[in-house]
Amino acid sequence: MKTKIHPEYNEINVVCSCGNTFKTNSTRKANLTLDVCAECHPFYTGKQKILDTAGRVDKFRQKYGTL
Fold this sequence. Notes:
Helix content: 10-25%
Distance between the termini: 52 Å
Number of helices: 2
Shape: elongated
């Protein structure tokens, strides 16, 4: 790697709206605030709702014909 062209990595605190905090390395110099993280996101917590899109596809095909 060439010297003096890469940004410096700093250790920052990441704070989620759910209260979870952790440290990471980043090129940012300030702390980072998130809306969701792996502790509160529905995909990771197992509370994700799956939408029934089959009805929507059938409705589209009836309206515009099968493609």
